[in-house]
Give the backbone structure.
Amino acid sequence: MLSLGQLLIFGLLVNIGSLVKSSDNCTLRPRGSTKFPKNFSLGVATSAYQIEGGWNADGKGPSIWDEFTHENPDRIKDRSNGDSAANSYQLFDLDLKALKELKVDHYRFSIARTRIFPNGDVSSRNQKGIDYYNTVIDKLLANGIEPMVTMYHWDLPAEIQKLGGFTNSVIINYFIAYAEELIINFGDRVKTWITFNEPMQTCKPGYGEGGSAPGIKSPGVGDYICFNNILKAHAATYHLYRSKYFEKQGGRMGITLDTFFGVSKTNNEADVDRALQYLLGILAHPIYSKTGGYPEIMVKDIAKNSQAEGRKVSRLPDFNEYWKATIRGTFDFLGLNFYTSKYVERPSEPLGENPSMLRDYDIEETADPKWLKAKSNWLYCYPLGLEGLLKFVREEYDNVEVKITENGWSDEGELDDNNRILYYKSHLQAVLNAIHDGSNITSYSAWSLVDNFEWSKGYTEKFGLYSVNMKSPKRERVAKKSAIYYRKVIETRSIPDEF
Ligand code: GBH
């Protein structure tokens, strides 16, 4: 018989054993220089709906996220919404103080479309919304912080959704008008523009599966139409900027795409490639490849599946030559949001409903129980995945300039956030290793500056470097241990061991 003491020690050892195992995957050895290149920009990211609050302040119109959360509180885990969030609309100075403490080189934030054009149309132009962002931009610049602006981070004006939102090609012209308003007002000071944040997440859950605003369920149809319109809107905005404003303003423009990295247990390159073409290629290939258009594998598969469903036209028609040429090359850099990795393999039985993107994709995703897990059920620490993705991008898209526009870790919101530090350390190391291998990466934004509204998870998963006191109307920000660590990274331009 073991004594209680022996049992406890045994239990402890088993525990330590499993802890060491999962965090083992969350570390990376340096391969090259331990310093970030001279002009490398280190910063943090947020988005308007997730932090601003002031949902109807000063003439702001309702967005699809205002309506989605108000009309379906049951679809948000804690029945919350972004009505007041971290109240950055009124309390931007608290964010500014945190940004200065961190000593960031840049701040990536998004502009709420419904503050600029409350009903989506130019006729509703709202000067107070423009004033707000002028103040934000001026204060950043006065403190030596470069503004990096996302034009669209999921908050479509509700009035445009009435017309079908991203499934109606009218959104292209509405978007161009909005983008031009931003360029005219802010382009003298904003030199880094991101047209869209993660169109995958606008289209697949928004217009395919229906789990995110506007909650349209049209799998394998609505999502594909949405991609098509976003790619056209992005390209048209890029051309407008280059032809009319670039000469005077000299800024740069790209799009931000998200993907996880696919790991094959059996070293099956074809599975990995298939996963990345479906997750990233559908949006990256039309813009960043030499040939343009959707990835060949998708065009072929979906044409075949569509035919089997009795359709005369593919659910994913490729662009015609005009649009192929118009979309291809519309970038100065590629924004990448990277969080996690999954194992990928072809399933033994078809997945998802018929039709759906999941059915077309035909890949089963699983996670390794040995990987360190965040609070979010989809988020694991596997920094080799970031190296793998950066290698894929280097080879597939001619070593395009990459800005990591998001990367981060969720937990319960504790101030002693050691796992977040482990995550940042290892992922920053992946960036340095990829640079050593030849990747052209020029900036990194940690997600996120402050705890914020995590979409359908409400406030139950926290990604901030700073905690926000949601119980107090003053929404005080408190630096977590990770904020102190990240500041050290920025100060030393390296990845310190100690924290
Ligand atoms: C980013 O998306 C967003 O840009 C940002 O607004 C957000 O706060 C941040 O991530 C953290 O989530 O629940 O299994 O269906 C990252 C890509 C894609 C990750 C959708 C979560 C949901 C998986 N996201 N995914 S699941």
The first strand starts at residue 41 and ends at 45. Residues 47, 50, 197-198, 201, 258, 337, 339, 378, 406, 447, 454, 463 surround GBH (CB under 6 Å). The CA atoms of residues 15 and 301 lie 46 Å apart.
